[in-house]
Specification:
The protein is 36% helix and 23% strand. The chain has 444 residues and is of the alpha/beta class. Among the domains are: 8-129, Rossmann fold, CATH 3.40.50; 299-383, 2-Layer Sandwich (Transcription Regulator spoIIAA), CATH 3.30.750.200; 388-443, OB fold (Dihydrolipoamide Acetyltransferase, E2P). The strands form six sheets. It has a six-stranded parallel β-sheet with strand order 2-1-3-4-5-6, with helices on both faces. The structure holds S-adenosyl-L-homocysteine, iron/sulfur cluster (SF4) and FE3-S4 cluster. S-adenosyl-L-homocysteine binds next to β15.
């Protein structure tokens, strides 16, 4: 046997689904590069942290985790520690200097260079690559599925973002928007289906602006959705995220047309006030947003609509906040992710506006938003009582080995007594009872 022991890497991921998808790309590149993936931090020779910068809190969590890694490295000085992702890109050398712990720093477009960067670090030199690319999409990389249930998987269809919402760090951390060759997305979806997967979620910061052009052929987002939907009626297709300014009638009609395109749209509104939307550089008004909601509700009855809301953005008054609450009621969101505004260095808001809503006010407004959303989510679940949904079985319920759990097309979790069917199969379930987060039913 060879003297050179194969080095084992362990990846920990923070942030959005795209980051989780990136970790699978990293795992694939490293496996091809002769490294071996490990699910056990204690036995790893290389520890990689794939990080997020979206809010200060996200970075704080990573810093805390680095402190723990410092103690690991004390015990095992040969351990290589690498920082990947958005925080690596945003902070570059600064964090390496500050922490005196990191051996490798690689931004989101540098993952092909990781084997080389790790070699360099292995020979005692610290290595950094945070160059952003205009065309890297990792289209040819076959992701190694990490933490997979073998049933649902994410597929990145584009990278970067050029919307420059004034609060947001993503355009700086992820660079220019670029779409991936549709053929590679279709191939990946088909391969997953053949392996037994039954659900793919197409990912991008703004999937509605997906656009591919080669020769005379162009493919837009509804075109791509359709090409994946027709692969097999048993393959569910989801997507995230939709920017309201780009959600077209064409997309809504394609969702309506194919039963296997899930009836769930994540449409982040951020605020209900025109003044704040303008300051956020979102490029739509409250009325335009509500118009899209009305179109979705009329074209796709029963479609779930979820959203993201930021509270306490610069200059947000009580009146602006009330408009957000009013909009939430009018849109009747089924689900919402809610955040306090967190100023991010480099962004337009950080450079030009004052973060002037006091912390206790942000907290109180957030509480009001969360309380209202709980009512709206509960109302949404109660509307489902007595309804029957097709559920993709994902596995045994965490609470009981006599129950299965899965999700309906609307992305709601459903729990029901086990049947003879297996995870990965579809079953019709009638809702008998609801809790705040789950629909409880029986297979029919
Ligand atoms: N591309 C998606 C969202 C990406 S980030 C979109 O445009 O909708 C996910 C969510 O984080 C955002 O929708 C927003 O609600 C929130 N977010 C982004 N920057 C933030 C900041 N500086 N402070 C608080 N929340 C933020
Ligand atoms: Fe950030 Fe706006 Fe891009 Fe979403 S669309 S990632 S919020 S800049
Ligand atoms: Fe975070 Fe980067 Fe995603 S900042 S939300 S990991 S694109």
């Amino acid at each position: 046997m060879t003297e050179n022991k194969i080095r084992k890497f362990y990846i920990e991921t923070y942030g959005c689904q795209m980051n989780f998808s990136d970790s699978e790309i990293v795992a694939s590149i490293l496996t091809d590069g002769g490294f071996q993936a490990s699910g056990n931090l204690q036995e790893a020779d290389i520890v990689l942290l794939n990080t997020c910068s979206i809010r200060e809190h996200a970075e704080d969590r990573v810093r805390k985790r680095l402190h723990y890694f410092r103690s690991l490295k004390k015990k095992n000085p040969g351990l290589t520690i690498g920082l990947l992702g958005c925080m690596a890109e945003r902070t570059k050398f600064a964090l390496m200097e500050e922490e005196q712990l990191l051996d490798v720093i690689a931004g989101p477009d540098s993952y092909r260079h990781l084997p080389g960067l790790l070699e360099q670090a292995g020979s005692g030199q610290r290595a950094i690559d945070t160059i952003l690319s205009a065309d890297e999409t990792y289209a040819d990389i076959n992701p190694v599925r990490l933490d997979s249930n073998g049933i649902s998987s994410f597929i990145s269809i584009m990278r970067g973002c050029e919307n420059f919402c004034s609060y947001c760090v993503v355009p700086y951390a992820r660079g220019q928007e670029r779409s991936r060759d549709p053929e590679t997305v279709i191939r990946e979806s088909r391969d997953l289906f053949i392996q037994g997967y039954r659900e793919v979620t197409l990912l991008g910061q703004n999937v509605n602006s997906y656009f591919w052009k080669e020769g005379n052929e162009t493919v837009n987002f509804p075109g791509l959705l359709e090409r994946i939907a027709v692969l097999d009626p048993q393959l569910r297709v989801r997507f995230a995220t939709s920017h309201p300014k780009d959600l077209s009638l064409e997309v809504i009609e394609i969702i309506e047309k194919y039963p296997n395109i899930c009836k769930a749209i994540h449409l982040p509104v951020q605020s209900g006030s025109d003044k704040i939307l303008d300051k956020m550089n979102r490029k739509y008004t409250r009325e335009e947003y509500l118009g899209k909601i009305r179109t979705i509700r009329s074209k796709i009855p029963g479609c779930a609509i979820s959203t993201d809301i930021i509270t306490g953005f610069c200059d947000e008054t009580e009146e602006d906040h009330k408009q957000t609450l009013e909009l939430m009621k009018e849109a009747a969101f089924d689900f919402a992710f809610t955040f306090k505004y967190s100023e991010r260095p480099q962004t337009i808001a950080a450079e030009q506006y004052e973060d002037n809503v006091p912390a206790p006010v942000k907290e109180r407004r957030l509480r009001e938003i969360i309380e209202l959303q709980q009512e709206l989510s509960s109302a949404s679940n109660h509307r489902d009582l007595g309804e029957t949904f097709e559920v993709l079985i994902e596995g045994e319920s965490k609470r009981s080995d006599k129950q299965y759990f899965g999700r309906n097309s609307q992305n709601k979790v459903m729990v029901f007594p086990k049947t003879s069917l297996k995870p990965g199969e579809y079953v019709k379930v009638k809702v008998k009872r609801v809790t705040s987060a789950t629909l409880i039913g029986e297979a029919i």
